[in-house]
């Protein structure tokens, strides 16, 4: 493969910012691409996969897979269906916070419309950096969408909306049995009541790598952290960009920082898991940030990486201009859509003693406005979204990791990601668990994270700022 010089890579990577691929960027062109309104009334829906056939007989409640037999089926026996579906109609408006979830949302809507053809769904894709501001404006204007995404209890927004009486209590109105035995419900409860639907996705982080570049340079998947750093040096010397990275987006930074922290300070994370206590400005946390800054100084991210947005970084990897990209597992689909011919895989960043930690978090679907003018249709949608059929469509469209073995992935990259030794906690979540009453370290994290890489703050100053807001 012909070597590509880093200066050329930068041009490709920064130009990529005009394309929408996944969430978080703040470039004007990307904003235009994401802030769209699409009217969905399609009646087409993908048939339930053959793997679900074996599960059909195990469940007859809402959320069961449609039983694939020659016997006559009622709507209640079909996944997420309702015997009176024909009586439910009207219009729903759904808000999603980033373009990376547009495809799975469309897949769910298509399946829902097959069962509820009289419900018209209009979905709107917003930008992640402005989402909550836009939602607050809509709420104040009395124009709250019928269903809308929040980050659940990972941030303070959901709890605030509950206190303001803006959300419908879904506790006894939606069948969440799909999530039994998982941690999925942990992000959607306030005072033991459920105010949002989770997804079956485990939002993890992984190192995506170009198998052709690795083969050309005689590299193998690293078994230790030292081997990983050695690979970075070899890739850089060969003229390839080692890691495509967006330091203009706090979330893109997080999705790389957390695997680095897990690989270099797993004992610190597990110490929190065991005791519920941790100093978020611990020297090991600071060292993880400093390690990333060291890689930047060595040119492993290429010049100008602080001006590249997340979509640009993903596109640079997708087009073969970078050997690796450390990102969220939900971006598999984006990478494959950017370049269907890309020969890539994934691995977990290893510790020095060879452990493969996986930073995985649950994710949230949608809340229902308490003031929705179409509560029957809204609840029908949430029930379908929370069903096995609905979440199978969601997960398979995302090509992401499911939290339940009822949903089976056929994607080789997903199976490679799942090769880990221990699932560990997210630094972002730890900030929330340890926040002082009345404080929001995660909001401050989001505001100031990028300053560490633009030299506006040192890693020590940044983590000290967070520590002041935590117990």
Automatic annotation (TrEMBL):
Biased segments, Basic and acidic residues type: 68-79
Signal peptide: 1-21
Keywords on record: Signal, Transport
UniProt superkingdom: Bacteria
Gene Ontology CC: one annotated term: ATP-binding cassette (ABC) transporter complex, substrate-binding subunit-containing
InterPro entries named among the record's database cross-references: SBP
One of the record's GO molecular function terms: maltose binding
tRNA processing as UniProt keyword: no
Gene: msmE_37
Name assigned to this protein: Multiple sugar-binding protein
One GO biological process term: maltodextrin transmembrane transport
Region Disordered, residue ranges: 24-84
Family from the record: Belongs to the bacterial solute-binding protein 1 family.
Pfam family, one: SBP_bac_1
